[in-house]
Amino acid sequence: MRSATPKVLHALAGRTMLGHAMAAARELEPQHVAVVVRHERERVAAAAVELDPLALVVDQDEIPGTGRAVQCALDALDARAHAGRAAQLVHDDAVDDELHADHANGGDHPLGDGLDGPVVVLAGDIPLLDGATLAQLLAAHRADGNAVTILTTEVADATGYGRIVREAGTGDVLAIVEHKDATPEQREIREINSSVYVFDAAVLRRGLAGLGTDNAQGEVYLTDVVASARAEGGAVRAVLSDDPMLVEGVNDRVALATLGAELNRRVLLEWMQAGVTVVDPSTTWVDVDVELAADVTLLPGTQLHGATKVETGATIGPDTTLTDVEVGPGATVVRTHGSLSVIGADASVGPFAYLRPGTELGTKGKIGTFVETKNSQIGEGSKVPHLSYVGDATIGEHTNVGAATVTVNYDGQKKHRTVIGSFAKTGADNMFVAPVTVGDGAYTGAGSIIVKDVPAGALGVARAQQRNIEGWVERRWPETPAAQAAARARADESAGRLGAQAQRQLAEHNALTGAVPVVRPDSTDATSDGSATDRPASDNEGSTQR
């Protein structure tokens, strides 16, 4: 993989490859699950325990090979079985003494051989293998009474895979030959070993005891147990899967991407067959643990990750990424990035919204364009329409938050909370310096910096009185375009224009007399055909002269 991350911890469709393998194993409801670790053992072991706290983590020693890995696992499982048996015998000393005496005289081990029954073995780098396929393999093993049952498939190019050598006539498996050890004739075989088996525990135990490293790789091959099982007269058979992708392994980033795309295609296919509309499957990605209801619509560019759950009638996308988000029925989420959030029924989010962890939007609520939220509860019918940051806040029901609002939640050391009540309306460009509370039905003025509580039904205004400093631009930035524009404007005003009082009086006079207002010589007036023509004021008959 050329990576600092162990191969089995690379992820696709929201799970590591180890996670996919363990999930498939757990679908069989086994008595025990053992995970063998070697490379980067600490990291892989920690991941395995996090996935399944009941899993038995087994450390493979420095002896390489799949056979040695399974041998270490079986030894650990046998030890667990012995411990359980010993705990039973503690309560019956007479039976315990009898068994030990029998063992001393050459009889069986007083605690038995260890694990019994079928043992399923699978590799940690086959992410598409599912529990249903494993169940079919196990069922065939039990039905036929096999010593070993192998899951196989056929591929066009079998280079690098172990070949299945079958007996003519019966079709039973004679041997599994690794590619490097295969003869030219055997390399022509297209049926390959998937590294997925079911063994009878006793057969496996005896076969592992006789394994060696006499092969091209110098490893202990699990496949050699097949030969020993046949030598004992046991039945070794194969179940051929007609879906090679199910048992395709990952050895590099190319295979990881290929299988990731294939797994996503299968996930989307299942959801579409269940009633979900996926407008563009080629740009839509849905993790295996996502839950979708019927009549959900996924628009192009949608990515749903983790434990995201979308209820019926909701529309997600386009260009939306949600991770561990719950979306209520009928909600719409457009061009939004969200994680660990809850979106209520019939709510609206986006476009260009960012929902950080802890966001809860109520029924028919709105988080609009260029809004960021974090650790905040926004009540039913309440709206944060645009250009705002709402962090560490509680907003009641049917409240409208004005544009460019910021809850100032951080004092440099601690986060503080803003509370805005129900049926409140906050003005545009408000700053709420937490901790602060705005009561139910209260209003706040535009441009206010609210640092004190606003009682219910009150108007909170906190802004400085406006004052105009005349001539400031020309003094501070002389000769600039702004200064020149200001100078021209003042020149126009001083060129005979009437003051406000005079303008009112003239308008009243014109209204009484029906006179046409004076048009300055440099102005234009419209002709009846819509064209403009320059005319001196003296040409306007009936005009009032200044």
Structure report:
- The chain is α/β, with parallel strands linked by helices and 546 residues long.
- It contains 11 helices and 40 strands.
- The strands form 9 sheets. Strands 11, 12, 14, 15, 17, 18, 20, 21, 23, 24, 26 and 28 form a 12-stranded parallel β-sheet that branches. The protein has a 9-stranded parallel β-sheet with strand order 13-16-19-22-25-27-29-32-35, with no helix packed on it. Strands 5-9-6-10 form a 4-stranded mixed β-sheet.
- It starts with 10 loop residues before the first strand and ends in a 13-residue tail after the last strand.
Features:
546 residues, alpha/beta, 12-stranded parallel sheet, 11 helices, 40 strands, 24% strand, elongated
Short description:
This protein has 546 residues and is an alpha/beta fold. The protein is 26% helix and 24% strand.
Lay out the secondary structure:
Blueprint: E1 11-12, E2 15-16, H1 17-26, E3 34-37, H2 41-51, E4 56-59, H3 66-89, H4 93-104, E5 118-121, H5 131-144, E6 148-154, E7 163-166, E8 173-177, E9 191-200, H6 201-209, H7 224-231, E10 236-241, H8 253-273, E11 277-278, E12 285-286, E13 291-292, E14 297-298, E15 303-305, E16 309-310, E17 315-316, E18 321-323, E19 326-327, E20 332-333, E21 336-339, E22 342-343, E23 348-349, E24 353-355, E25 360-361, E26 366-374, E27 377-378, E28 383-391, E29 393-395, E30 400-401, E31 406-408, E32 418-420, E33 425-426, E34 431-433, E35 436-438, E36 443-444, E37 449-450, E38 459-460, H9 472-476, H10 481-493, H11 500-513, E39 525-526, E40 532-533
Parallel strand pairs: 3-4, 6-10, 11-14, 12-15, 13-16, 14-17, 15-18, 16-19, 17-20, 18-21, 19-22, 20-23, 21-24, 22-25, 23-26, 24-26, 25-27, 26-28, 27-29, 29-32, 30-33, 31-34, 32-35, 33-36, 34-37, 36-38
Antiparallel strand pairs: 1-2, 5-9, 6-9, 7-8, 39-40
Helix pairs in contact: 3-6, 6-7
